[in-house]
Structure formats: structure tokens, C-alpha cells
Design a protein that fits this description.
Number of helices of chain B: 17
Radius of gyration of chain A: 19 Å
Radius of gyration of chain B: 21 Å
Number of domains of chain A: 1
Shape of chain B: globular
Oligomer: heterodimer
Helix content of chain B: 55-70%
Strand content of chain B: under 5%
Largest sheet of chain B: 2 strands, antiparallel
Largest interface: A-B, 42 and 41 residues
Strand content of chain A: under 5%
Number of domains of chain B: 1
CATH architecture of chain B: Orthogonal Bundle
Order of helices and strands of chain A: HHHHEEHHHHHHHH
Shape of chain A: globular
């Protein structure tokens, strides 16, 4: 009984952290720049490739993960400067352009590196509870996901840069008038989103085979998480929607397999959207603001 | 019709007296960019040239050409949806696939002759129904415009995953085996009396050419009708259109369903052309193609989309001889640089400048 409970909790944690990591970069780009980056899956793939190739070159895994984050973040900055910034006026065109980019990146990788790359073995081994055995690594990744949310919270709410970012998000014209270099903020935000994608790819590289379509396993869940979360508040959105979606998909996928979990995700997304079209974060944010207004002395 | 109609009519085409025969027929108007005597003479010339093609070209080339032409209905449907209604969908291949598989299942079970016609009708009906149901959630949920491309892409990915895992014997509908990654094979071709519409003979070529001509003219009539004006108004300013008393959700849903139906038509034609359908025709790479054709062609002009679709299909076919991956890199690069240099579409930009050279005022 306790073993079953642990099993469910473990699956739930692993699912939540997967959705959170897959969607985090995407949701920050959506919240800050108001565009959907369809090359997000390819950024994740590049993170996995960078990490794997570095490990093959003899770099320790932890360093390889950091390296992948930095490399993909820099690629993101370049992509924003060269391509994405031309499309801020037209969201749908931005979507199509990043889509073209994703084609070039995934098929280019296929041309350059071939159909697959020798993988990396999963570090840290496993442990047993009751009749099931578990991978310690996935628990560490789950822990990292929550640490990451906390770090992003610190960035957004406890640093000058975070204040500038939130100001740009709320009212770019006013922020510019007050001396915020919004164009640099946009570049930084897109690079941050890309870096988070690179980190995700690197972290999940040991769990599966490294192929040019590595990112496709992430994009459907990531998009659903982002659509349900909404861009009004990236942190709340990512947390709330990945938890909610995991509540739906964990029992389904442990009972009927991954595919049932996917279908469950899709159906849950359609139903939630029918009733909360602006995303969870919009409603949670509004509720939060109402509470603060009711007790003005407690607000910061 | 209720009173709001007059609001659009007074600013639209019907207020001015139609000043040429094409506008009176409804096939020309302010909402189709190219038109007039020169356009329709070219249209007739090209149509005649295509119809007579098997006489002066090889049959093999005509059959290969059929393969490209099959892509036109799905592309024209997306042009209506994206260019006129402002709704971008990455899910057209999902409807393509649903129709292809549905046609396969029904045709295998109901057999040759009349059975294949019923199967085609059934597949198109089912696809339209699925498109309408999915569209209901999108438009009646009033999701924002950027969510629709994302959700339709997810629909495609989920469908591909589903079809990919149907390899087992339990995935059998009547006598039809879904077949997992290998897809469904031995789908009977459409037959009508003694005519068989398959990939080895000319009847399918003529059927597809006729269908495309009908669809192109039909969509032009639709675009220039009252309905088309409302759809265009929704793209220009959804809120204002709604304040004028139109239920914009209904218009969007109808356009989405038409686009789904046209994608389904391509799917049925594909299944009857090659006698097979496989999950990769629903996959991520396949999903890119209609968007590529329409974006590079020029989503506001049906003729440009038609030209773009055929040209790009031929180009990727030629490149695929060297390497399939290279074909997609080139397509991606065309899309990316097209969006940056000619956001309206490459083909339409070329056609516009040609028209300016020829007629001095736009055609």
C-alpha cells in the first residue's frame, strides 16, 4: 500500500517536472514577447546534442549540462537578433518564421550528425521501494525543476533586471519612456527561454535516444502546458498547469500507457480551454490581485 | 437576411454596379486580388494546356503531375482559412489523414464499384464532422489566435502517435488492418463504371484537374459573396464585426469545416492514387507542407497558392532524389527568408510585379 502510494507520488513528480521543464522556456517567451516559438523543440534537441557531444569529448556530465544551457542560450540570442525581432508586429508570422527555423534546425542536424547519436548512460543508479525500482536521477531532475522555478522567482521578483522584465511585459511603451532598454530585455528573455530549453534537453539526454527529432517528444506536452497555463504570469502558469495536467495524465498513463496519457492531456486541454480560454495564470493572477486589493496594507 | 447585411453591402461590391461580366458572375470582385479579362484568358489557356498535356507530354509525366495536383485542395482550403479568415492551422494534414484512413477502411470493407464512391462520400462526411467538432472547441471557446496553430499541431502529433501504434492484429476494422507505422495498404481505387481512378492511368489526372478548377472558381465565388465579405471583416477586425451583429464564431467554424473538407478531399485522392496511407502523412514533417505552400505562395491569393503548391511539390520531389532531408532544409530556408523578405508570399509578390509591368495597374 505504502509502496503503491510512493509509486504514484514518484510518477506524479516525474510528470510534473517533465511538463514544467519542457514548457518553462516556451512560457517565458510567450509571456515576455507574446509570441510562440515553434523552434522550441529544436532548442531542446540542440541542448541534448551539445550535452551528449560534450560527454563524448570527456567533459563531466554536470559541466556538459551547464555548457548546453549556455550554448543554446547564445544561439537563442542570435536567433532573436537576426530573425525573431522582425516579427513582433505580427504574431502569426513570427510563428511561421520560427517554424521554418525549426525545419532547418532539425533536418540540418539530420544531415550533419546522421539519424542518431550514441547516448549517455543515466547517472546515479536506482533504488527500490516495495516491488518497484526507481531511477534516482529522475528524482534529482524533479528537484532541480522546483529549484529552477524558485530561481526564476528570485530573478523576476528580487532583482533589478526582473523588475525591468516585468515592466516591459506589462507596458513596453511606458517602460521605454522610463529608460528601460526594452529591446535588450527582449533579446535577454528570448535567450533565457532558449537556455531553459537547452537545459531541459541536456537533463533528459540520458533518458532516451538522441535523434534529430528529439524535440518532438517534448513539444506536444509543452504546448499543452503553455496553452493551459497562459502567458499572464509565466511562473504561476507553468506550476499550476503542469500540476493540473499531471493529475489528469499520471493515473491514465500508469493504467493504460503513455499514449492514453497523451490523449488525456489533449482532451483535458480542450475542455479546460472551453471554460478558461485565457489560461490558468490569468485567472490565478486576477484572484491574487483581488486578494491584495482587499488587504492593501499587506501588499508590497 | 437581417439588417446587418446592408452595412457590408453598402461598402462592398454590391453597392457599385458590377462593371464587367466576371464580377456579374461573382467570380471576380474586390476580395480576389487577381481577376479581369487577362486573368481569365490565362486561366482558360492554362486549363486547356493542362487538359491536352497527355497528348504532347508523356503519360508518365502526367501521372507524376497528378501527385502534385493532389496537394492543391488542402492548400486552397488553408488559403481560405488563413488568408481570408486569419486562422492559421497546422492540423490540415490531420484531416487529410483521417479522410485517407476512413476511405481506406470503408473501401476495403465495401469493395469495388459503388462501394468506393460510398467510401469517398463517407470519408469526406466523417472528416467534415471531425473538423466541425474540433472547430467548435476552438471557436466557441474563443481561444486566442495564437493558440489555434498550437492546438492543431498537437492534434496532428497525437493522431500520428495513435496511428503509429496500431500495428497489432487487434487494430482491425472489418477486413481493414490499420497497420501501424507501415500504414494501410491495398486500398481499392475509386471506380465509376469502367473508369478506375488510380495512379497508373489518366482518369484520375482529369478528375483532379476538374476538381481543382471547380474548387478554385467555387472559392472565388465564396470569397466575393456576402459570406466572404463577413469572413474578411472578421480577419480585419473581429470585435467590430461582432458589434455589427454577426456571430463570428459561426462564420469561423464554417470556414474551418470547409478547409477540413478540402483537406479530406486531398486525403481521399491520395489514398486512391497510391492505394496506401501511412502515419507519416499525418506527421510533423507532413504538417509543415500545407503551411509552406500557402505561406510561400501567398495566402491572400488563391491562384498564387495553387501555383506555389504545384511548384513547391515539384521542387521537393526533385530535391528528394538527392536527399529527403535536404528538401526540408531548403523548404525551411525558403519559408524563413520568404517570411522576412516577402511576408505576403513569394509567388504573389512575383505575380504582382509582373502584373504591374504588363498592365500598369494591378490585374
Amino acid at each position: 500500500m505504502a509502496g503503491d502510494l510512493f509509486n504514484l507520488a514518484y510518477q506524479f513528480l516525474v510528470n510534473v517536472s517533465f511538463l514544467m521543464l519542457a514548457a518553462m522556456g516556451l512560457i517565458i517567451v510567450l509571456g515576455m514577447l507574446n509570441i510562440i516559438n515553434l523552434a522550441h523543440g529544436e532548442f531542446i534537441m540542440m541542448g541534448a546534442y551539445t550535452a551528449t557531444l560534450s560527454v563524448h569529448a570527456g567533459v563531466p556530465f554536470v559541466v556538459a549540462v551547464v555548457l548546453a544551457t549556455i550554448v543554446v542560450g547564445m544561439i537563442g540570442a542570435i536567433v532573436e537578433l537576426l530573425i525573431v525581432r522582425r516579427f513582433y508586429a505580427n504574431k502569426l508570422n513570427a510563428l511561421v518564421a520560427t517554424f521554418g527555423l525549426s525545419l532547418i534546425l532539425s533536418q540540418g542536424t539530420l544531415l550533419l550528425f546522421g539519424p542518431y547519436l550514441r547516448g549517455v548512460s543515466m547517472p546515479l543508479g536506482g533504488f527500490r521501494v516495495g516491488q518497484f525500482s526507481y531511477a534516482t536521477y529522475l528524482l534529482v531532475v524533479a528537484g532541480l525543476a522546483f529549484v529552477l522555478i524558485f530561481a526564476l522567482w528570485l530573478l523576476f521578483y528580487r532583482t533589478r533586471l526582473g523588475v525591468d522584465m516585468r515592466a516591459t511585459m506589462q507596458n513596453p511603451d511606458m517602460a521605454r519612456a522610463l529608460g528601460v532598454n526594452t529591446s535588450r530585455i527582449y533579446t535577454f528573455s528570448f535567450a533565457l527561454g532558449a537556455a531553459l530549453a537547452g537545459l531541459t534537453g541536456a537533463l533528459y539526454a540520458p533518458t532516451t535516444t538522441i535523434v534529430p527529432l528529439f524535440g518532438t517528444a517534448f513539444i506536444a506536452p509543452a504546448f499543452i502546458t503553455v496553452v493551459i497555463g497562459g502567458g499572464a504570469n509565466p511562473l504561476i502558469g507553468a506550476l499550476a498547469s503542469s500540476s493540473l495536467l499531471s493529475v489528469v495524465s499520471t493515473p491514465l498513463s500508469s493504467q493504460y500507457g503513455t499514449f492514453a496519457g497523451r490523449i488525456g492531456l489533449m482532451l483535458a486541454a480542450l475542455v479546460i480551454m472551453r471554460f478558461l480560454p485565457d489560461g490558468l495564470s490569468y485567472y490565478l493572477q486576477a484572484a491574487l490581485l483581488r486578494r491584495r486589493k482587499a488587504r492593501p496594507e499587506s501588499s508590497r | 437576411m437581417s439588417s446587418p447585411d446592408h452595412a457590408v453591402v453598402s461598402t462592398g461590391r454590391l453597392a457599385q454596379s458590377p462593371h464587367n461580366v466576371f464580377q456579374r458572375l461573382g467570380i471576380d470582385g474586390p476580395l480576389t486580388i487577381f481577376g479581369g479579362p487577362i486573368y481569365w484568358s490565362l486561366f482558360a489557356l492554362i486549363l486547356i494546356a493542362v487538359v491536352l498535356f497527355p497528348l504532347y507530354g508523356s503519360t508518365f509525366a502526367a501521372l507524376n503531375f497528378t501527385n502534385f495536383l493532389i496537394n492543391a485542395p488542402v492548400a486552397l482550403g488553408l488559403a481560405l482559412l488563413w488568408g481570408y479568415c486569419g486562422v492559421l492551422s497546422f492540423g490540415q494534414v490531420a484531416f487529410f489523414g483521417i479522410a485517407g484512413y476512413a476511405y481506406g477502411v470503408m473501401a476495403i470493407n465495401w469493395g469495388l464499384g459503388l462501394g468506393t464512391l460510398l467510401a469517398a462520400a463517407g470519408a469526406l462526411g466523417l472528416t467534415s464532422l471531425v473538423a466541425a467538432a474540433f472547430g467548435y472547441f476552438l471557436f466557441y471557446g474563443r481561444v486566442s489566435s495564437w493558440i489555434i496553430p498550437v492546438l492543431t499541431l498537437v492534434l496532428t502529433l497525437v493522431l500520428e502517435t495513435f496511428l503509429g501504434q496500431t500495428a497489432g492484429l487487434e487494430w482491425r476494422i472489418g477486413q481493414a488492418q490499420l497497420g501501424g507505422f507501415n500504414g494501410m495498404t491495398n486500398i481499392p481505387s475509386l471506380t465509376l463504371g469502367s473508369l478506375t481512378f488510380n495512379g497508373y492511368s489518366l482518369p484520375l489526372f482529369y478528375l483532379v484537374v476538374a476538381l481543382i478548377a471547380v474548387i478554385l472558381i467555387g472559392l472565388r465565388v465564396l470569397a466575393n459573396s456576402h459570406f466572404g465579405h463577413v469572413v474578411m471583416a472578421i480577419q480585419e477586425d473581429a470585435e467590430r464585426t461582432e458589434l455589427l451583429g454577426y456571430d463570428i464564431r459561426r462564420y469561423q467554424l464554417v470556414v474551418f469545416t470547409i478547409a477540413g473538407f478540402l483537406a479530406g478531399l486531398s486525403g481521399v485522392l491520395y489514398a486512391t492514387w497510391g492505394n496506401f496511407i501511412q502515419p507519416s502523412s499525418v506527421g510533423l514533417l507532413a504538417a509543415t507542407l500545407p503551411v509552406l505552400w500557402v505561406a510561400i505562395g501567398g495566402r491572400r491569393s488563391l491562384s498564387s497558392v495553387l501555383i506555389g503548391t504545384i511548384a513547391l511539390s515539384a521542387l521537393s520531389d526533385a530535391l528528394a532524389v538527392y536527399s529527403g532531408d535536404l528538401a526540408f532544409v531548403v523548404m525551411g530556408a525558403l519559408l524563413l527568408f520568404g517570411m522576412m523578405a516577402a511576408p505576403d508570399g513569394i509567388v504573389i509578390t512575383i505575380l504582382r510585379s509582373l502584373a504591374k509591368l504588363l498592365v500598369r495597374r494591378p490585374l
